[in-house]
Design goal:
The complex is a heterodimer of chains A (about 100) and B (about 650). With about 100 residues, chain A is mainly α. Chain A has three helices and no strands. Chain B folds into three domains: about 550 residues, no CATH class; about 55 residues; about 35 residues. Chain B has a two-stranded antiparallel ribbon. The chains are: A mainly alpha (about 100), B mainly alpha (about 650). At the A-B interface, helix 1 of A face helix 25 of B.
Chain lengths: ~100, ~650
């Protein structure tokens, strides 16, 4: 039984929802970053699969871009996170309320 | 020659802008002098144009620039100086120049001297646009411009307080026996402006109809094609245009504003409400004569209304003691004469009477201004008397003007007024002729009633306070040319006829010379009779209406201006005020305001209630974001499935 495009997309959706639930439920910032990465990779799976099944390389190219951007985003994010931890000794999401009006 | 056209048109504008620069500063005599000089330049240019057109019979037609070019509409800023407009230009510029010079003396002590000259010159510019435009829309712009300047000038003394309306005939602002010309200058200004707006709507509809049916507003194109339209349309066009003319020329039922406009400074009354602006309606009829020739039944209606107004206004002037109102009603009456001539198809006669009337009526008003100036702004002719020995030149000039107005040979009024009577007789309109004939007698009577009360008899003014004196020499000098024209303008009749019949239709009446002579004799008889009656009764009794007569109903009716101001107040002003209040209370506050308020409160409450979403917690914000995203995706999916595909 050969896999069809829908199977890939279903896997991608499931992973995306797992990531989304992680973003919504988690309070730890590192966990939040993980969840974001999961979502991004879910999208990557979808892009690569669609690209393969349509015979168009643009989707895979985009997947690479996303990998690169996700890496730099995490680098910046972790840098900020370390700064935050040094100052407040916590990385709980509920502590980030400086901007409350 | 085009240069002269532009100079004649634009030098009043330059004067107005110049005087306007000093609008807020204190009195500077040079603003008056400069505007008068620029008007003089305009007058000389007009005279040169008149001479040129008289000699060569050319028409000067220029296009300054495009004005409205949209789709099929192409209306240029075009000006035309032809045989008709050049006559009007000369009349307007001569009278305005003299009135400007006179005003330097009359407005001598006024705080707003500079402002006055700015308005007055702006008026002349608008009038020139009205006269010289080569299309109906340009005429309409000038028409509105003179209306605006008239509003500014009637309400020139806007700071005067409102007079209460009373039943007392000697104090009510609605009566011609009281010292008040109307409730207040601002009231009179607004009344004139609003009444003209109402009538101008008619004119605007007429202009739309012309464009709708012909596709152009240029005079030459319109007049070429007017014969091709069906007669119903032409009747409609003629009627709507005439409604505009009725408003501007104060014909019944738009007549009350003219008498109330006497609240303005007297030179304004002379220039705007006697010589030029109010004759714009007659000019419109003359200008658009091709339209009115096609529909003689409308013309006959115009003539009948004119005769009715001529007679009605003359009767009101009989009993009035407000000096300016007597002259105002006389103006109204003479406008009626012009409309009779225009309505009966004698367009050049109407224009001729317009010109002669402009000369003698403006000088009559300027003389009244001198008298009021000399008697500390007294306006009741019964409180003057015996002024002849104090102000001889003014008296002589006013007597000349009154004789001309009465139509006595060889003064200007004789030629034009007799022609109108001859036209009425020649077109077999005997009823109109009779009415005008009686009116001629009334005209002579009330003119000399005024002269006798003001200049002769017992001195009724307060000798302690009032020291009558002749005004400045230059003021008299400015009146002299007009007085001379009032005397001799009639002798230019033949050259005038030769000039204007190039454009206007010739008279088509057949009255034998003997009949004409008899008509002249009859008319002169009643005019002389009116004068003689006025003079002899005054010498014998010192007054005209006994106390018993003054209590009669018809005397009160005349003194109350046929109760027209009361009627307008009761039938239009008060119900309109009620309607406005109702609209304010119900439609405005309960419906429109309610809708606007609901929209505002909904948004405000929505903001207030959705504020709780903002907890500053990132987790909550992310939840809301996800919720929004999901909602959006659901919406898109549902939209695509149900609406676009289904």
């Amino acid at each position: 039984m050969a896999l069809i495009l829908n199977d890939y997309l279903i896997v991608s959706t499931i992973i995306f929802i797992i990531g989304l639930v992680g973003v919504l439920r988690r309070k730890n910032l590192i966990m939040l970053f993980f969840a974001t990465e999961i979502m991004l990779n879910a999208v990557n799976i979808a892009l690569a699969a669609i690209s393969k099944f349509h015979g168009d390389l643009t989707g895979q190219m985009f997947a690479f871009f996303i990998v690169a951007i996700a890496a730099s985003e995490v680098a910046i994010g972790l840098g900020l996170l370390i700064l935050w931890y040094k100052r407040y000794n916590t990385i709980n999401l509920d502590s980030l309320q400086n901007m409350k009006g | 020659m085009e240069t002269y056209l532009y100079i004649a048109l634009f030098s009043p504008l330059v004067g107005s802008l110049f005087a306007g620069l000093f609008g807020n500063s204190e009195r500077k005599v040079f603003t008056g002098v400069v505007t008068s000089m620029l008007l003089g330049v305009s007058m000389i240019s007009s005279l040169i144009l008149l001479n040129y057109i008289f000699v060569t019979s050319d028409i000067i037609h220029v296009k300054l620039m495009d004005w409205i070019v949209i789709g099929n509409i192409n209306i240029p800023y075009g000006f035309v100086v032809d045989h008709v407009s050049v006559v009007m230009m000369v009349v307007v510029t001569i009278v305005s120049t003299m009135v400007h010079i006179h005003s330097i003396g009359y407005m001598d002590h006024d705080r707003s001297f500079n402002r006055f000259f700015s308005y007055l010159s702006a008026f002349v510019f608008s009038m020139m646009v009205l006269v010289m435009s080569d299309n109906f829309l340009g005429l309409f712009i000038g028409w509105e411009g003179v209306g605006l300047c008239s509003w500014l000038l009637i309400g020139f003394w806007y700071h005067k307080k409102d007079q209460p309306t009373t039943k007392d005939i000697y104090n009510s602002p609605y009566s011609t026996l009281s010292p008040y010309s109307s409730i207040s200058p601002s009231y009179a200004a607004n009344e004139a402006f609003i009444m003209n707006r109402v009538a101008d709507l008619g004119m605007l509809v007429g202009i739309f109809l012309i464009y709708w049916n012909i596709g152009s507003l240029q005079y030459d194109i319109v007049f070429d094609k007017i014969g091709e339209l069906n007669s119903m349309t032409v009747v409609l066009i003629a009627c709507t245009l005439f409604i505009g003319a009725m408003g501007k020329s104060a014909q019944f039922p738009f007549n009350t504003w003219l008498a109330n406009a006497m609240e303005g400074p007297t030179p304004v009354s002379a220039l705007i409400h006697a010589a030029t602006m109010v004759t714009a309606g007659v000019y419109l009829i003359v200008r658009a004569n091709e339209i009115f020739t096609v529909v003689p039944e409308v013309g006959y209606f115009i003539a009948s209304l004119g005769a009715f107004v001529a007679f009605g206004a003359a009767t009101m002037a009989l009993v009035a003691t407000n000096m300016k109102k007597i002259i105002a009603y006389s103006t109204l009456s003479q406008l009626g004469y012009m409309f009779v001539a225009g309505g009966l198809g004698a367009y050049w006669v109407a224009l001729f009477h317009l010109a002669t009337h402009a000369f003698f009526k403006s000088v009559l008003f300027l003389g009244a201004g001198n008298v009021m100036h000399a008697t500390n702004d007294e306006i009741n002719i019964k409180k003057m008397g015996g002024l002849y020995k104090h102000m001889k030149s003014t008296a002589i000039i006013m007597i000349i003007a009154s004789v001309a107005l009465s139509g006595i040979y060889p003064f200007a009024g004789f030629f034009s007024k007799d022609l109108i009577l001859e036209v009425a007789f020649g077109t077999h309109s005997y009823i109109l002729w009779t009415v005008l004939w009686i009116t001629a007698g009334l005209t002579a009577f009330y003119s000399f009633r005024l002269i006798m009360y003001v200049f002769f008899g017992k001195e009724n003014y307060d000798k302690e306070k009032v020291h009558p004196h002749e005004t400045y020499a230059f003021v008299i000098a400015s009146m002299a040319p007009l007085a001379i024209l009032a005397m001799i303008a009639g002798f230019f009749k033949d050259s005038y006829v030769k000039l204007v019949t190039n454009t206007l239709p010739k008279l088509n009446i057949h009255v034998s010379p003997e009949t004409v002579n008899i008509l002249i004799a009859i008319t002169s008889f009643i005019a002389l009779g009116g004068i003689a009656f006025a003079v002899f009764v005054f010498i014998k009794k010192g007054g005209y209406f006994s106390d018993k007569l003054q209590n009669r109903f018809y005397f009160k009716t005349l003194a109350n201006q046929y109760y027209m101001p009361h009627l307008i107040d009761k039938l239009i002003n008060k119900p309109y005020l009620k309607l406005s209040k109702y609209c304010f209370k119900v439609i405005d506050s309960k419906i429109i305001d309610a809708i606007v308020d609901t929209i505002a409160t909904t948004i405000y409450k929505g903001g207030e209630n959705s504020r709780i979403m903002q907890t500053a917690n990132l987790s909550t914000a992310l939840k809301w974001m996800t919720f929004g995203l999901v909602a959006f995706i659901v919406f898109v999916v549902v939209y695509l499935n149900l609406i676009v595909r289904g």
